[in-house]
Amino acid sequence: ARNKKQTFVLGALVLVGLVLGARVLSKRPASAKAAGPVAELVPERASSLSSIMASEAASTVNTERDEYIRRISHDIARDLFEFHADLYPLVRPPQPDLPVPAAAPGHPPGQATEELVRTRAAELELQSTLHSEIPVAVINGRVLAVDDTIDGFRVVEIRSGSCVVEQAGVQVHLAIPPD
């Protein structure tokens, strides 16, 4: 029974192969039909002519590409990671200063003033710093430089990963929160 099944399957595959082979051999290429009887007489020349034209077109494209690559300057003259402050100027919108009692010159701020300032500073979130020629800090989504103000606080110093802000003579150290 097993040999009969194998023989039947093999016979069916051979029959399918013969039908497909006959169909492929009986069909002419579409380009030969379009060319008419001349292409039937000289099929080798027609196909070789089209292959020559295709190779010449490819050769022209390759030559143009090679010339373009030769003309490109391969000298790298800039640092891709260097920050250019002139390309990204700081926008400093006007900020209203919140009223905080100022400390008298030469006197330390009062306890109530210091607590009020530290409470307000808790609302500030240092998100990022960029330590370069012009150090930049991102606080509450705003890009700030030294001497800029945000919510009544003046940015005093920017370091890598931290910054110091001041209000009413009270300095508060902000650090980037750990992830």
TrEMBL record:
Pfam families: CdsD_C (PF23862). Residues 137-171 form the CdsD C-terminal domain. InterPro entries: CdsD_C (IPR056283). This is CdsD C-terminal domain-containing protein. It comes from marine sediment metagenome.
